[in-house]
Write a structure and sequence with these properties.
Length: 132
């Protein structure tokens, strides 16, 4: 595993063996930091030709509607500009944050069909990402 980016609210590592980017969001993230983090994720995905991501949101807190919209928009833009990405998301413990994640997924699904699944744990998410 190679660490690509690290801030108190966001940790990004690359599993070169399985070609999976691991993205971990933690705690409350102010809007400007969240958007900068989203931009960094997509920048690194393009730079490293990432086609699979595992996003761990277990410890993440709720984000606002505008930030949900921003994340969904950037995801669609990335897929349109580069390629489709297989995405596994581990849902947050916090019920409001979980709802927020589902909202983003629904917004992306309205724009395009991405291969995205929500999971309760990392083991199931990794197994799904590694399956063909």
């Amino acid at each position: 595993m190679e660490t690509l980016f690290e801030k108190p609210y966001l940790h990004i590592v690359l599993d070169k063996t399985h070609e999976i980017m691991h993205i971990t969001w933690k705690g409350f993230t102010p809007s400007h930091d969240f958007r900068a983090g989203i931009d960094k994720v997509f920048e690194l995905m393009a730079e490293h030709s990432i086609k699979k991501t595992l996003t761990d949101l277990v410890e993440h807190r709720v984000i606002g509607a505008e930030d949900q919209e921003y994340a969904a928009k950037r995801s669609v833009e990335f897929s349109n500009q580069y390629w489709q990405v297989k995405r596994a998301l581990i849902t947050p413990k916090d019920v409001f944050a979980r709802f927020s994640v589902k909202q983003v997924n629904q917004k992306v699904a309205q724009e395009e069909s991405q291969d995205r699944q929500l999971f309760l744990n990392q083991e199931d998410a990794l197994a799904w990402l590694q399956s063909e």
